[in-house]
Amino acid sequence: MEGKVSRYVRKIIPRKTHNVKRGKVEKYVNGITSSGSGVFMGLIDPDKHSPPKALKLAKAMYEGGADVIMLGGSIGAQGVALDEMAKLIKEEVSIPLHLFPGNISNITKYADSIYFMSLLNSKNPYWISGAQALGAPMVKKYRIEALPTAYLVFEPGQTVGYVGEAKLLPRDKLDVPVAYAMAAQYMGMRFVILESGSGAPAHVPLDTVSAIRKVCDINIVIAGGVKTPEQARELVAAGANCIHVGTKIEDEKNPMERIKKFAKAIHTKTGAK
Description:
By secondary structure, the chain is of the alpha/beta class. About 45% of the residues lie in helices and about 15% in strands. It has one domain (about 30-265): TIM Barrel, CATH 3.20.20.390.
């Protein structure tokens, strides 16, 4: 059995070392944040769009001022469909194409980078380290830049909270999410996603963001519940580095104006973090 595993590993993993040093995408993100600006990460859910429609939306995000295009969702497209979508976007859009995976099936070789993330407050070990062990060989094989990331799901959690079997973090107890974020940093993670869930009525509280920023040096990413450019601006001012914007753009019939407003708000200079 040991010999078979060794042959399998040798077959799928190139000999060239692929470690978690800061790669091009992470340096690009850090370059933006070091200027005092937030990073506008436009999220496209592959389950909601055909590849041509996803490409049209990605182009609008790029032209409107997004810094990164992301593909991701709690459930949805995978395999050939995801590859086709990612390939189309990569061929037409020059900013990084980043993966926000819902599971190991949401990996495509056409992406530049991926949140290699652990859902730290899950009740199921699969989402903490099991999926990561299964997905790691594919990330290495495809030479996708891995961003070491902690994933923290807050109330109400929405679909991701249910699928990820999360013990939802409270919105009114600062010490709990702060402790999780500190643990993430001490474990070597360089990003922490504060997730309320796609379509959540509100993003994580501003005081939670500020409290984490005071004790952690890692990149703070806000996901879920960011409904207006003003909210995005306030989150960056509170200490967030990256803002996910998806639903509020995907739902627009003519998204360009909305995208530009989000870009302007997120890119407001607040001082290097």
